[in-house]
Design a protein that fits this description.
The protein has about 110 residues and is an alpha+beta fold. It has a domain of about 50 residues: 2,3-Dihydroxybiphenyl 1,2-Dioxygenase, domain 1. The chain is about 20% helix and about 45% strand. The protein has two helices and eight strands. A hairpin with a 2-residue loop joins strand 2 and strand 3. It is globular and about 40 Å long.
Length: about 110
């Protein structure tokens, strides 16, 4: 199960327009939104960023450090370091085949 999606794109405005026309998706700034709130983000890929444009799913975990250690033990590698946000913490990995996935630990109250 995924809890969020992030579109990494070199042209957020063009992507926003494309998905708006294709699916009727609404975007507010860097977020795709629905009636119940944001469900996806638009991340700008800088010209010197070597990654390809892509959708990145966020998988929820109970303990981010534990999940990251387990993923690495299973052959993944961290491609972006842990980021702590007001809503929770995230780290981006590539699985052993090169597929990108974000591990997401929501903030516990």
């Amino acid at each position: 199960m995924f809890v969020f999606m992030d579109l990494r794109t070199p042209d957020p405005a063009r992507s926003r327009a494309f998905y708006g026309e294709l699916f009727g998706w609404q975007a507010s700034g860097p977020l795709f939104t629905a009636a119940d709130g944001p469900w996806g983000g638009l991340t700008h890929l800088a010209p010197d960023d070597e990654r390809s444009p892509q959708w990145v799913p966020y998988a929820p975990v109970d303990d981010l450090d534990e999940a990251l250690a387990r993923a690495i033990d299973l052959g993944a590698r961290a491609t972006r370091p842990r980021v702590d946000l007001p809503q929770g913490s995230v780290v981006v990995i590539e699985d052993p085949t090169g597929a990108t996935l974000a591990l997401w630990e929501p903030k516990h109250s």
